[in-house]
Design brief:
alpha/beta; D-Maltodextrin-Binding Protein, domain 2; disordered N terminus; signal; SsuA/THI5; ABC transporter substrate-binding protein
Length: 315
């Protein structure tokens, strides 16, 4: 289902708050948003939520920084870059943690039983992204040297199939395509080094609307309970929002690697600190390596804590 702007207006306009422009695109990672929409929780709370879609979380984040939207959904990596460059935004929630990050190999090229099998190999990934961070961190922790080959996301699987590279680290949306293309030659390694977080960031203007932001997050916390209580209904809602392009059974299989629940915890903060240090080390952004306190300043837990105190576990 494609959106440009969708107004949720079951309540009379006079009863609604000012519109909240929410940059969110239907995806498999955030079923609580689908459930909140399907159950009318935003409407019931008197919120006028208007969806604005973007091709990527990075574009949604840029729209947030430019004042075009009030709340943006994205993976955490752009926020690390935004913090380093002193952008004006706040992380207000962590919706989902993904535990299935993997390195994919071709059995015709090399075994892939451990990271040491990658020593001296050619590995394709997309430089300057969270998958680059994942690969770099995994190789460094294992003390493995390899040749990193930069490629666009859509070119990685074909390169592996052709044998141009020995392994790839693509975005998760390409995992199934790699398995389909390689068939019996498909190999994967899950080193457990990196768990992406799918977060919500708010604009400075939205932070001044604290009651509405708290109400918005409260609707998602309410939907979290629905997802936990009836995962099949949640998968049906997500599949419907994706126009049936991802079947319920496929979603349920994918969700084995996802931890849902609107929260803010130290694992997100630790990851952002690590990513920011890596970005500086790679020379992507010229800045001092930030401290934990520097990055923590970009996380604003108050609205979520007001909606669900147990959801915030930051020290």
């Amino acid at each position: 289902m494609k959106h440009t702007i969708l107004a949720l207006s079951l309540f009379p306009a006079a009863a609604m708050a000012d519109p909240i422009a929410f940059a969110w695109t239907p995806n498999p990672q955030t079923p609580q948003v689908d459930m909140a929409l399907a159950q009318g929780y935003f409407d019931e709370a008197g919120l006028d939520v208007r969806l604005v879609t973007f091709a990527s979380g990075r574009e949604a984040f840029e729209a947030l920084l430019g004042g075009q939207v009030d709340i943006a959904f994205m993976a955490e990596f752009p926020a690390a870059t935004g913090a380093l460059t002193g952008q004006n935004f706040a992380i207000v929630a962590d919706l989902t943690r993904y535990t299935g990050s993997r390195i994919i190999g071709n059995s015709d090229r090399s075994p892939l039983d451990s990271l040491t099998d990658l020593e001296g190999k050619r590995i394709g990934t997309t430089l300057g992204t969270n998958v680059d961070y994942f690969l770099s961190t995994a190789l460094a922790e294992a003390g493995v040297g390899a040749e990193i080959v930069n490629a666009a996301p859509g070119d990685l699987v074909p390169a592996l199939v052709r044998g141009d590279v020995d392994a790839i680290v693509p975005f998760p949306t390409f995992y199934q395509g790699a398995q389909d293309a390689l068939g019996d030659r498909y190999l994967e390694l899950r080193p457990g080094i990196y768990d992406p977080h799918y977060i919500l960031a708010a604009s400075p203007a939205m932070l001044t609307r604290e009651d509405e932001l708290t109400t918005f997050l409260g609707a998602l916390v309410r939907a979290d309970a629905d997802v936990a209580a009836d995962p099949e209904a949640a998968a049906e809602a997500v599949s419907a929002s994706l126009s049936g392009n991802v079947p319920v059974a496929t979603l349920q299989e994918m969700w084995a690697d996802m931890e849902f629940g609107t929260s803010l915890g130290p694992d997100l903060l630790d990851l952002l600190v690590s990513e920011a240090a890596w970005i500086v080390g790679q020379g992507v952004v010229r800045a001092e390596v930030p401290t934990t306190e520097d990055i923590a300043a970009f996380i604003v837990p108050g609205p979520l804590a007001a909606a669900a105190p147990d959801a915030v576990t930051l020290d």
